[in-house]
Structures are given as structure tokens and as C-alpha cells.
């Protein structure tokens, strides 16, 4: 048994910060940013939080999949920038979408978080422990950025994406991931 993505959803904040906006408070310009990153604009929270964006993305994924929240067996949120520590972000989402039967936990693996969550979902599905998994990646990195550092502030925005993964068919999924801790200082954020 392997899991198949059967629904997707996303949410981005309304506020848009384009490269020209950035050039007003950090030494950069649109051409410099686009040549190095391909980024033209990013979405930035105003009144949203990691949790509220995750909830919106989750609801959209559930609707797209035609799945009721009560049918979710496992809810994984991957974030490095949640507005809550305890209870975990996944529990806050569970409460708000009423996924009352779901086991919930967060994963913090930064850029690779969604991939680790997907691999985790597949492992649970393959063992027949869970049949329907909701995975959400949500970040509010604008709250953590040094907006005077053009090497990093140009890269990140805020948003959330979600998928519903359901046990669908026979097969095997083998996800391969590796970590390189010695390169961990390339991007840092102290608590």
C-alpha cells in the first residue's frame, strides 16, 4: 500500500512585497535579485499567523480531495517559524479544522520539512497504521528575517501549502534523504 496525493491547497498572505519595495530599505534592486534568485515578489503576513495560514491551506486541500477533516488519521505540520510552541502547531490546526480523530505532531526540518513529512506519511501508510494523512508546510519567515541583510531577506516570504495523502494502491515508496549538518551554518536563526 502506498499513499497518493489526492488533494492540494495553499494560502499566501494578501500583502505583497516586490523587489522595488525591498530596494527602499536594503541596498539592492529588482535586476540584482532576479538575476540571482528569480524572485520578483514575496507575500508577507499582516494579521495572519503560521496557524491561520496552515488552517486555510488545510481546508482548501480537504475540499480539493473531497475528504472531511474528521476522516484524517494523521496530521503533520512542518514549520520552523510557528507562532505557537505548546501545544504544537498541528494540534492547533486539528482543533480549528475539527480533525478530532487525528494524531498530530510537528516536524522542524526547515527547507526540507515538507519532504520529511511526506516520507513520514508514506511510512505510516505502508505499515497500515494510518490511511489518510494531512501534511501542511507553513512558514512566517518574515517575522525572523534580518531585513537589512540583502543576502537573506530577498529569499523568503510567508505562506502555507497542504496535501491530503490517502492509501490508494499496492506498491512501494522508498524516499531517500540525507542531511549535511556541517553546512548548517549557511542559514541560521537563533531562538
User: What's the pLDDT, averaged over the residues?
Assistant: 94
Named CATH architecture:
3-Layer(aba) Sandwich
Characterize the biggest β-sheet. Answer: 5 strands, mixed
What class do helices, strands and sheet pairing give? alpha/beta
CA-to-CA gap between the ends? Answer: 40 Å
Overall form:
globular
| Main sheet strand line-up | 1-7-6-4-5
Tally of separate domains? 1
Just give the CATH class. Alpha Beta
User: Can you say what the CATH homologous superfamily is?
Assistant: Thiolase/Chalcone synthase
| Radius of gyration, in angstroms, nearest whole number | 18 Å
CATH fold topology: Peroxisomal Thiolase, Chain A, domain 1
Question: Which stretches of 5+ consecutive residues score pLDDT under 50?
Answer: none
Beta content comes to 25-35%
Give the number of DSSP strands: 7
Give the SSE string.
Answer: EEHHEHEHEHEHE
Number of helices: 6
| Helix share, percent | 25-40%
What report would you give on this structure?
By secondary structure, the chain is of the alpha/beta class. Helix content is 29%, strand content 26%. Strand 4 (74-78), helix 4 (89-97) and strand 5 form a beta-alpha-beta unit. The radius of gyration is 18 Å and the shape is globular. The termini are far apart.
Quick rundown:
The protein is an alpha/beta fold. The protein contains six helices and seven strands; from the N terminus they run E-E-H-H-E-H-E-H-E-H-E-H-E.
